[in-house]
Amino acid sequence: MSYISNTEQARPMITPVPNRLAGKVAIVTGAARGIGKAIATRLSQEGAAVLIADKDLVVANETASELHASGAQAIAVEADVTSEAAVAAMIEMADTKFNGLDILVNNAGMIVFGSLMECSIDDWERIIAIDLTGALRCTQAASRHMILRGRGGRLIHIGSSASLLPAPQQGAYSVAKAGLLMLSKVAAMELAEHGITSNLICPHGAITDINRELLLDPNVMSKLESRIPAKRLAKVEEIAALAAFLASDESAYMTGTELVHDGAASISGLWWR
After folding, report:
1. Mind listing the domains of the chain with CATH numbers?
2. What is the model's pTM?
3. Which of 25, 38, 55, 148 is the most exposed place for a label (fewest CB within 10 A)?
4. Which of 51, 65, 57 is closest to 100 using CA atoms?
C-alpha cells in the first residue's frame, strides 16, 4: 500500500473572493514557481493585475500565460532583486502597463543548507543580498511610488518560521528571515501615515514543484508531519489566501504584525528536537 501523507489528503477551503482586489495592481517577486506563483494566481483570481517578477523569465512567461488563459491580467518581468536598476524597471513596468502599484509581495528568496560554522562568506552574503537586502530594495522602490501616488498600499513579506526561531543547518537563512521580520515592522511604523501597511507571513513549509520529489518520499514526509501538531505541511494555496487577505481592504488597519502559518509548529518545540 502506497503512503499518502496528511498534507496530500488535506483539502482546505481556499475559494477566492471574487473582485475583492478589482482595480488593484500587484507585483510578486519570485513568482514564477512555488509560493510566489500561488500568491500571484490568487491575487489575479480576486481581480488584481499582476506582474510575475522573477529571474527566470522563461518560467515567468509560462506562469503569466497560464493566468492569461484563465482571463487574468498578468505580465512577466525579468527581475533580480539584488539589482537596483532591475527593481526600478519592475516598478516602472507596473506603472506603464497597469497605471500604478498597490501591492508588493516580497517573496523572492533562497536557502543554502549547512551549519553556521561551515557557511561560506559567499553563501552568507548571497542569502542576505536576496532574502533581506533585496526585500529592502523592493520595499523602498515600491513605497516611494505608493507615496507619490497618494493612494496607500500593501507590503506583504514572505518570511518563515525561521523568522521567529533559529533553524539548525539554516543559519544565514534564519538571520535573513529574522531581519525581514524587523524590516516589516519598521516599514509599518514609518509608512502608516501614508496609508501603507506592512505585514509578514511566516510559513513553516509547503510542497512546491522544487521540493515535491523530496517531500513526497514517505520517510521524509512522515517525519516532517510527525513534528507538526497539525500533522501536515501547508498548502501553497493556503499561504496565498492569507496574502490575498493582507492585500485587501479588509486588513486596512492591520500593520506591523507577523502572521504565523505553521500548524502550531513554532509553539510546540517539536520541530527543533
Report:
1. 21-205+237-261 (3.40.50.720)
2. 0.90
3. 148
4. 51
